[in-house]
Design brief:
It is built from eight helices and 23 strands. With 458 residues, it is of the alpha+beta class. The protein has a seven-stranded antiparallel sheet with strand order 7-6-3-4-5-9-8. Helix 1 packs parallel to helix 3. The radius of gyration is 45 Å and the shape is elongated.
């Protein structure tokens, strides 16, 4: 029995390394399983001998155990040094994985190269600082596309004019009894009228602004200064210090007809710069009172919203025919916007650039308060005008002309009854600077008629 055990051990010694690495062993786990299985087989053979070992046999068993441990170590070394067998399926999967990784690396390389080429040859990256947030904006220099578009189409108009319309952001200092002084942000739109930075917008967009920021279509931002503003027409001109801009082309707003298609471009809600809407001319010479000023406006069906004010209204030739300045804000009413005719806007803008104001406008040289019902008199209890108020009408509260005084009631001018402020303003606007008018007044309940020369409004 001892000889048989020796023979079995010798056989294991001869085949241990080769057999244990081959026969489907692909991993360390397979190797451990194979070793355990071999050891169990050997123990079963020994148990089958059913005899008690002598000291010599115990010593031999100890040596065999040492040899077994040494074989295991050698098998581990052989396993990690020898090339592992891989099935065809494993080789195929490895090949596919390598191809996928190669494709990803190539895509990344092409992406980086493409971004570099775009940034350096097609467009440039600029940085916009807005508060604590830095925004990277890509400046696009799109190739000309007008020749690829149908003339007299909306895409044609947009491509021709979008670089001429800007977004405007303003900051105004406001006061509140509860909150005290605070900064209020506003927004609007504007239209570039010269390559060196003159921009038309609305007076109500920039009125009382402490700072004005203009954002071009390409995302660049500039600080603007006020050149001049006119409350009567709601037209203002601002300027940014930059050259090479794309000015609009003025159209003749007198040639507009009702039903004509128009395109509005602006910055609705102060966040959607470059928004395009279209519609038709719904009416011409629509008389409206906006901010206490009577205006003759174009009525349009194109959708406009807060922030569109100061934006451009274009015909299908891409010419400016109006400056958007108002919409009907009643709940449930849409498609009812208004624009200042381009001819009026151009005339006012020219005077503002040349003189800083509109010249040649006549004035009577007075400020008045209109009392439409006797209950309103009590609103002026603490004012100096209060002792003079007894009935409805127009009362002088301040005057630069030496002919009229505090408390004078304006009854008529050149024989025409003056019942409201609009009556007075509209009649004076029909005159010229230097004209004389006959003003009928009531002073200390005495009726008088005065001859007054009209002066130029400052």
């Amino acid at each position: 029995m001892q000889d048989n055990s020796k023979n079995n051990i010798d056989l294991e010694e001869e085949n241990s390394t080769d057999n244990i690495v081959a026969d489907g062993i692909d991993s360390v786990d397979d190797l451990n399983d194979k070793i355990v299985e071999s050891a169990n087989d050997r123990k079963i053979d020994e148990w089958a001998m059913c005899y008690e070992n002598s000291p010599e046999e115990d010593e031999q068993e100890r040596k065999l155990e040492e040899e077994y441990k040494q074989q295991r170590k050698e098998a581990f070394k052989t396993l990690f040094k020898a090339p592992k067998y891989k099935s065809k399926k494993t080789q195929k999967n490895t090949f596919i994985l390598k191809i996928a990784i190669l494709a990803m690396l190539l895509s990344l390389a092409f992406g980086v190269c493409g971004a570099y080429l775009y940034t350096h040859f097609i467009g440039g990256a600029i940085t916009v600082q807005r508060g604590d947030v830095t925004i990277n904006v890509v400046e696009k220099n799109d190739p000309p596309v007008l020749e690829n578009l149908d003339p007299n189409s909306i895409p044609f108009v947009v491509a021709k004019t979008e670089n001429s319309v800007v977004a405007i952001t303003t900051n105004t200092i406001s006061k509140n009894p509860m909150m005290g002084q605070y900064i209020q942000e506003g927004a609007g739109s504007g239209v570039i009228i010269s390559e060196d930075g003159y921009i038309i917008t609305n007076t109500h967009v920039i009125s009382e602004a402490t700072s004005i920021i203009v954002r071009l279509h390409n995302g660049q931002e500039y600080t603007a200064s006020i050149v001049g503003s006119d409350i009567t027409t709601d037209i203002a001109v601002i300027k940014i210090e930059v050259k090479g801009l794309s000015p609009i082309i003025f159209g003749d707003s007198k040639n507009i007809v009702v039903g004509q298609t128009v395109v509005a471009i602006g910055n609705p809600l102060g966040e959607l710069g470059g928004t395009v809407t279209s519609g038709i001319i719904s009416a011409k010479d629509r008389e409206l009172t906006i901010n206490k000023q009577n205006m003759n406006l174009l009525q349009i069906s194109a959708a406009v919203n807060p922030g569109n004010s100061g934006g451009g209204l274009f015909n299908l030739d891409g010419e400016l025919v109006g400056i958007v300045n108002a919409k009907n804000s009643d709940v449930g009413i849409e498609g009812l916007g208004f624009a200042i005719p381009a001819n009026d806007a151009q005339d006012v803008a020219k005077q503002l650039i040349e003189n800083g104001k509109v010249t040649g406008r006549p004035q009577l040289g007075i400020s008045v308060v209109e009392i439409s019902n006797t209950a309103e008199i009590y609103n002026y209890v603490s004012d100096p005008i209060y002792p003079y108020l007894d009935t409805t009408g127009l009362y002088v509260i301040d005057a630069t002309t030496p002919h009229l005084f505090l408390g004078d009631k304006i009854i008529a001018i050149d024989g025409q009854s003056m019942d409201t402020y609009d009556d007075l303003k509209d009649y004076i606007n029909t005159k010229k600077v230097g004209d004389t008018v006959s003003v009928t007044i009531s002073r200390s309940k005495q009726i008088q008629t005065l001859t007054i020369e009209l002066t130029e409004k400052p």
